[in-house]
Design goal:
Blueprint (H helix, E strand, L loop, with lengths): L29 E8 L5 E5 L6 E6 L10 E3 L7 H5 L6 E2 L5 E5 L10 E14 L2 E2 L2 E6 L16 H13 L10 E8 H19 L10
Parallel strand pairs: 5-8, 6-9
Antiparallel strand pairs: 1-4, 1-7, 2-3, 4-6, 7-8, 7-9, 7-10
């Protein structure tokens, strides 16, 4: 009879997607993205920090939808180090680091993991807090897979991402607290991810996920 220890490690119970999953195989260059939103969603879903399940955050008030699959990088946290890389912010937003993953093929499911290679990011400020959006390409994607930097991506697609994030929190009659401070390339994006990993370690500790294979 085969012993469980001879098999690849596995989780007996569903791990928390933020705290219980790994950052990726080769961070900060290649990371795992836990997807919360697809380009088909007109409801804003967000991972509940206590349970790890998706909650309905709000219906989108505008007609724009996410141009790409959108979620976060596990075991990251936007604290003081991330804020220091965003000169016009006064703090990090105290959430996991957000990521948009470019892919040619439609992705219409959430709560999935995508292997993503980092190429850049958007410097977003929300109410004075750094709320960066990392931009990556899906590993082995037939169209975007060979992109190395943000400059390899059509400008129109980056414009759509910036427009979405500049409008997705708009509420009629309420002043908008979101500003887009610009975009950045791969090298700065890697610094932001490293900073978010260090912020996470300081806030939550460095113990890696331990699969239960018993």
């Amino acid at each position: 009879m085969t012993s469980p220890n001879q098999h690849e490690s596995w989780h007996r119970h569903r791990p928390h997607p933020w705290h219980g999953l790994a950052v990726g195989d080769d961070p900060p260059s290649e990371v795992d993205a836990f997807i919360e939103l697809t380009p088909f969603d007109v409801i804003k879903y967000e991972t509940d920090k206590r349970t790890g399940y998706l909650r309905v955050d709000r219906p989108q008030r505008t007609s724009s939808t996410p141009p790409t699959p959108y979620g976060f990088i596990p075991r990251t946290w936007c604290g003081s180090r991330v804020a220091a890389l965003s000169p016009t912010s006064n703090a990090g937003d105290k959430d996991p680091l957000d990521i948009c993953v470019l892919t040619e093929r439609p992705v219409n499911r959430t709560e999935i993991l995508l292997k993503a290679r980092v190429i850049g990011g958007i410097a977003m400020i929300d109410g004075g807090e750094a709320d960066d959006k990392i931009i990556a390409v899906m590993v082995r994607d037939a169209v975007y897979g060979k992109a190395e930097d943000l400059s390899d991506i059509p400008t129109a697609l980056i414009d759509r991402l910036q427009h979405y994030f500049s409008t997705y929190k708009m509420v009629p009659g309420v002043p908008d607290a979101v500003t887009i401070a610009g975009t950045y390339g791969r090298e700065h994006a890697l610094k932001v991810i490293r900073a978010s990993m260090e912020d996470y370690e300081e806030e939550y500790g460095s113990s890696p996920p331990v699969p239960d294979g018993a």
